[in-house]
Specification:
The structure is a single chain. By secondary structure, this protein is of the alpha+beta class. The chain folds into 2 domains: 154 residues, D-Amino Acid Oxidase, Chain A, domain 2, CATH 3.30.9; 92 residues, FAD/NAD(P)-binding domain (3-Layer(bba) Sandwich), CATH 3.50.50.60. Helices cover 22% and strands 30% of the residues. An 8-stranded mixed sheet has the order 3-4-2-12-13-14-11-15. A hairpin with a 5-residue loop joins strand 13 and strand 14. The longest helix has 15 residues. It is elongated and about 70 Å long. The chain binds flavin-adenine dinucleotide. The site of flavin-adenine dinucleotide (FAD) has 20 residues, from helix 4, strand 11 and strand 15.
C-alpha cells in the first residue's frame, strides 16, 4: 500500500506455498531445489509444525515451505480495475481497425460498429491481451512480435470438507514441472475448490473430460491416500498459457515486451512478473521522452463504449 501501486484490498489466500515430496524422490527434489527460481529460498518444515492436512499423512514424505504467498486474483483485478474504471472498455473484435500515419506508424484505432464512428489516437499503443495479442498483432499488421500458446487441461474439485491446501507435489520425472500443483479457492457458495495444475494439466491436454478426471482422481488417491474424495465433484477445462515466442517455443524466463510501429506488444509470462513488465515499459517510454497528455476527451467514451466487466471464475 505504500509504493507506486496501492494494492490494499487484494486478498492473500495463503502466506506460504508448500512443496511435498514422497520419500522415494529425494534425488529429484535436489534438482528441483537447485533450480534458479527456488535456490536458497526453501526450508524443510518440522513435522510438529505441519499444516493439519499433512499431519494426517499416512505415507512418508517431507514438507518444505516456500517464501511465495498466494493472491486471490479476482480481488487483485478488482483493486487494479477499480482505480481505472472510467478508462476500461470492451470492443467487439469486428468493430475496430488500426490506422497508420504517413511514417507507417500505428497512429489510431478507428471504431465503427454500425451506429457510431470515431477514432482514438495515442502516442503509443500497448497490447497486453494475453492470448488475444495474436489477433491484435495480425490486425495491426505487425511483423516482429510472435506469440505462442502452451495448452493445459486444468481440473477442479469442489468439496465442503476439502481443507485449504497450497502445494506443489514433486514427481519422479526429469522435468521441473511438479507432478501436481494445488491451490485452494472458494466458489460463490463458500465451498472449497481445489484447482489442480502441474504435470497433470500438461499431460492431460489430449485427454477427454472423462479420462482427465479419472487421471486426477487416481493421482490424488496415490498422493494422499488418507483423503476421502467421495463427497467431491470433479470437473476440468482446457486453457492456454499465452507467451511471447522468443526462442523456438521454449518457455520465456522473464516478462517480455517488443516495440514495433508505435506499438508495444507485452506478455508478463507470469502474473508475478507483471510489475517487472510495467517497469520495462515505463523505462522504454521515458527513453522516448514520452509523457502522458491530458485526456479531456476520454469522458465522452463512456457514452459510446460499453464498460468491460470482470469475468467470474470457471467454478462459479
Ligand atoms: C492455468 C494457469 C495457471 C497460471 N498460474 C500462474 C501462477 O500460479 N503464477 C503466475 O504468476 N502466473 C500464472 N499463470 C500465468 C498468468 O495467468 C499470466 O501470465 C497472466 O494472466 C497474463 O496477464 P495478461 O494481463 O498479460 O493476460 P490475461 O490475463 O490473459 O488477460 C488478457 C485480457 O485481455 C483481454 N483481451 C483479449 N483479446 C483482446 C482484444 N483483442 N482487445 C482487448 N482485450 C482483449 C482478455 O479478455 C483478458 O481480459 C497461469 C496461467 C494459466 C493459464
Amino acid at each position: 500500500g505504500e509504493s507506486d501501486m496501492d494494492l490494499r484490498g487484494c486478498r492473500v489466500l495463503s502466506e506460504h506455498y508448500y512443496m511435498w515430496s514422497d520419500s522415494g524422490f529425494r534425488s529429484k527434489l535436489k534438482t528441483f531445489l537447485g533450480s534458479k527460481s527456488l535456490s536458497g529460498r526453501v526450508s524443510a518444515v518440522d513435522e510438529k509444525q505441519y499444516p493439519d492436512f499433512f499431519k494426517l499423512a499416512t505415507v512418508e514424505g517431507t514438507l518444505y515451505k516456500l517464501p511465495d504467498f498466494v493472491l486471490d486474483t479476482a480481488s487483485l483485478l478488482q483493486v487494479l480495475a477499480g482505480k481505472q474504471r472510467e478508462h476500461i472498455f470492451r470492443l467487439a473484435s469486428e468493430s475496430y481497425s488500426f490506422e497508420r500515419d504517413d511514417k507507417n506508424q500505428v497512429s489510431a484505432i478507428a471504431i465503427a460498429d454500425g451506429k457510431k464512428e470515431f477514432s482514438i489516437e495515442a502516442q503509443r499503443f500497448i497490447f497486453s491481451a494475453g492470448k488475444g495479442n495474436k489477433q491484435l498483432i495480425n490486425d495491426a499488421g505487425l511483423e516482429n512480435a510472435k506469440s505462442q500458446l502452451r495448452p493445459l487441461n486444468m481440473v477442479y474439485v469442489k468439496g465442503k470438507n476439502l481443507p485449504k491446501v497450497f502445494v506443489h507435489c514433486i514427481g519422479d520425472s526429469f522435468s521441473l514441472t511438479p507432478k501436481l500443483t494445488i491451490t485452494s479457492h472458494e466458489d460463490v457458495d463458500g465451498t472449497t475448490v481445489w484447482y489442480l495444475g502441474g504435470e497433470l494439466a500438461e499431460s492431460g491436454v489430449a485427454k477427454d473430460r472423462e479420462s482427465q478426471i479419472k487421471a486426477a482422481r487416481s493421482l490424488l488417491h496415490n498422493l494422499f491416500p488418507w483423503m476421502d474424495f467421495e463427497e467431491t465433484e470433479f470437473n476440468c477445462f482446457t486453457i492456454d498459457r499465452a507467451e511471447a515466442n522468443i526462442n523456438n517455443n521454449y518457455r520465456p524466463e522473464d516478462a517480455f515486451c517488443i516495440e514495433e510501429s508505435n506499438v508495444f506488444v507485452a506478455w508478463p509470462t507470469k502474473l508475478t512478473l507483471t510489475p517487472n513488465l510495467a517497469d520495462k515499459i515505463i523505462e522504454r517510454l521515458s527513453v522516448s521522452n514520452l509523457t502522458p497528455t491530458p485526456t479531456a476527451n476520454h469522458r465522452g467514451l463512456s457514452d459510446v463504449l460499453e464498460a468491460a466487466e470482470i469475468a467470474t471464475s470457471r467454478w462459479d
